[in-house]
Amino acid sequence: MTSTPDAPAERRFKRMTLNQRIQHIILMTSFFTLVVTGFPVRYPDSPVSSKIIQLVGGFTMRSRIHRLAACVLIGLTVYHVFYMTLSKHGRSELRALMPAFKDATDAIQMLKFYVGLTPNTPLFDRFNFIEKFEYLALGWGSILMIATGLMLWFQNQTLEYLPKWTLDVARVIHSYEALLGFLAIIVWHFYQVHLNPQVFPMSRVWLDGEISEHQLKTLHPLEYERILKQEVGRPTQPHPKNHSL
């Protein structure tokens, strides 16, 4: 009886560094802590709010946890700005995340694919137009949340320079931006990263930083093609003509 040799393991490619994964975990933890501890302020009459306040040890403790998570988010945001502008890898990632004309044409082609006007989806590079939009929305949302949060935290100091109505506007913006961010994460980001049939039940990139060759070739064919070209002695492969979901 002859034994068949084991199939070679599928290649894996580095997509997130350890530094990026740590940043992601800190962002995820601080974000959901802010959402949970901010819920009782947004919906004070909800039974869920009373459960949250009871769970964290009272409203005063809720405020302390909320502000601690806010400080973590502020610190992470400052660090991320320096990381993306001063480190070589960060600058490379920032360039790849900047919108380009191709993103507009990709979005149009994706809409055509969804309604059956074309059999092919766009060929994406390192980041597709959805990932770019998410990143920019996160950056803009973080700035809004930090600015309005600091105004509400230091109300007396704010009123020394700004009229009372600015605090009311800040409160509304802070509340609805938090709700919008939460829904965007749950509905959009969770589907793209975890519930999408191509990666279900979960993408492990945020845990080990690696993506399989199949997923890289399917989800980011232009990046995959560029990597092959850069590898010495490895022939390039044409990207698939029918890149359907």
Characterise the protein shown here:
The structure is a single chain. This protein is mostly helical. The protein has a domain at 15-97 and 128-210: Fumarate Reductase Cytochrome B subunit (Up-down Bundle). Helices cover 69% and strands 2% of the residues. It is built from eleven helices and two strands. It has helices at residues 18-42, 47-56, 59-86, 88-97, 101-114, 129-153, 155-159, 164-195, 205-208, 213-219, 221-230; strands at residues 12-14, 210-212. It has a two-stranded antiparallel ribbon with strand order 1-2. The longest helix has 32 residues, at 164-195. The radius of gyration is 22 Å and the shape is elongated. The model has no long low-confidence stretch (mean pLDDT 89).
Overall 3D form: elongated
Coarse structural class: mainly alpha
The rounded Rg comes to 22 Å
CATH architecture of one domain: Up-down Bundle
The beta-strand count equals 2
| Spatial sequence of strands, sheet with the most strands | 1-2
H/E element sequence: EHHHHHHHHHEHH
Q: What is the makeup of the main sheet? A: 2 strands, antiparallel
Tally of helical segments? 11
What is the mean predicted local confidence, pLDDT?
89
Question: So what's the CATH class of one domain?
Answer: Mainly Alpha
Helix content: 55-70%
CATH topology tier name of one domain: Fumarate Reductase Cytochrome B subunit
CATH superfamily of one domain: Transmembrane di-heme cytochromes, Chain C
Measured between the Cα atoms of the first and last residue, the distance is 42 Å
